[in-house]
Design a protein that fits this description.
heterodimer, A: mainly alpha, 9 helices, B: alpha/beta, 13-stranded parallel sheet
Chain lengths: 204, 534
Amino acid sequence: MERRKTTGEMSAAEIAEVLTQVRAGDADAWGELYRMYAPAIFRFCRRALPTREDAEDATTEVFMKVRQKLGTYDSTRPFTAWLYKVASNHCWDMLRRRRIRQDLETGDLETLPLEHPDPSQLERLQAEHGSKEVRNGLQKLPDRARMALVLRYFAEMSYEEIADTLGVRRAFVGVLLLRARHQLRDVLAGTDAALILGAGGAKR
Amino acid sequence: MSHFDEMTALLYLESQLDAEHAREIAAHSASCADCRELLHALQTEGIWLRESLAGEDEVMPARLTEGRERNAAPWGWISALGLSAGGAYTLWSGFVEPWRAQAAQAGFTQGNLFTMLFFSGAFWKGWDAMRSLMEFLAVATLGLVVMWLLRRRWRSLTTIALVLGAMIWSLAISPVASAAETKRGDPNYTLPAGEEVKTDLIVFADRTQISGTVDGDLIVWSRSVTVTGHITGDILCFAQQLTVNGPVDGNVRTFAQNGTLNNKVGKNVMVWAQELDLTETAIIGGSVTMGVGNAELNGHVAGDVLGFAESFDVNGSLGRDASFQAGTLQIGPNAEIKGRTKFTGGREAEVSPSAKLGSPIEFILKKHGNERNYSSPRFYWHQVLLWGASFVFGLVVLLLAPGFFFDAERACGKTAQAIGFGLLFLFATPIAAIIICITIVGLGVGISTVFLYFIAIYSAQVFVGSWLGEKILGSGVGVGAGLGRLALGLLLLRAVGMLPYVGHWISFVVVAWGLGAVVLALYRYMRPQVAPAI
């Protein structure tokens, strides 16, 4: 039996060919496209949304949207990037619709804590917490912070794309990311967040 | 240059600074160990984040691994249709047909019983008058189902237009409902004596008094209904109290708590009630069919009588055969039954010596409760039929609403929570439905609630069974594996339910468990807020 190809094994030309076939209504090509990208999109949704059930629903719905919007895809851009854009818009819409954002950053996006991390504490934190703990910690972050980290460090989106998805000004994306990192550190360090902070930047 | 802050360091690492600023940072960090250390820590953190987020610890669920729009072989659908047909045949041959035959043996000689019950007389006409609404709801539901099924296939508005067009067309070509006068009480409605309604009359009111003449059918939703006038058609009534003192030329069909008939009914009577009283002055031209708590039959019935009740008290004359299934049957001194009399009950009928019976009572002793005869092959065959019916039901749910099916199945995993909610809803839902039914407006809602409640209770075994099957067989991919899980789980539940002494209790827990899972799955769709899963 022929082994299924994964995203990494397909060249841009091959992806373009599959997309052409999908646009022509080829159900098999659609199945191939789905099989190639569904696991990645599921993982993305799993990171971006609070529950596994939400991620499952979102994966299905994202592909429905992809099918509908395939005509708008600009083939000069990487397909994966476009796919993640559709997925991120969908997930963010989902969260927004449910009004569950516990994000309190909207009003003070421009402000940041002045404390600087103690690099050695930061490295210790990384050494003490495995990937799974980071993912678990991520689920405890406010939606906007979680989305920002996922968009940047999982979907590898540019600052412009993140700003567009989350509806913030581009200049604030860095602030958003840094704040999200701080929040994740706090979550991983437990309540004793001061451990990883250099006590008001005393070190510097 | 002085030390730079963390924000600047992050922007530098992510190439978000302009070239000049970036050069300054690079130059400074080359000579400053603290800043170099900060840059390194942040860079490592970025890598750590990327690696952690890319990590794969959860496999995509089986139902998502195959594209839903795959061009699959139609074997799944063919087998599903085959099983559905088999299940439908099983249901018909196992339950419906025997019951029908039993009814026919009971002396019910009016041809097709179903036709008589549902498609003749007031029922049919009643719905006929109401059919604009019914048709709209039916077509709308059908349309929604079609739209749901086609939701991934349409590429433009064409399909939507087609479906909507078909719906409108369906409504347009349906015959115009026969004219009927609709009255809404404020809160009561009275048709005064001497007045005549020359068409069908539909009434929604708290109390309804019909003293005038209705030259057509009378269809009533009301708390109490008193008819002293003349009804030339049928009466179809949903009420707490129905009293008919005037003549009715057609049929009387009623769902009521108490029903009293004092006058002539030209055709048949069908009653579902707590108490039914056919007084000495009542004359029924056709047959009487009833499912009641207690019934007193003191009038005259020209046709057959078929009754299911807790107790029957017969002191009138019955022109043809009578079949009773009840706890007790008393036949008084003035009673006269010209045809055969069959009685199925817990003890023999008490018959007055003065009563006139066309033939001796054929008495069948009803076995106590649901006593199981483990030595009878019929018992096991019955269990197989029940298993088949539940499997077909599960199959239909799986095909129509796979998302909900899997949600409910998964919710079974939260055992304690599901059983707790299940018990709550098991007892609270009927109470709520009864309370809603007290108001006329809520009657439809209440009846719908009860209807859905029974469906949910029946479906409980399907979700628990499927969950159980997954625990045993694992979560394989595809229709076949899903059906296998469902079949095995239901088989186990059926087998456990057959156990003496504890079987009933286990079945009860399964009902609560599955019902709770349904509630949890429904809640998932309606919850206002979601807590993080971890």
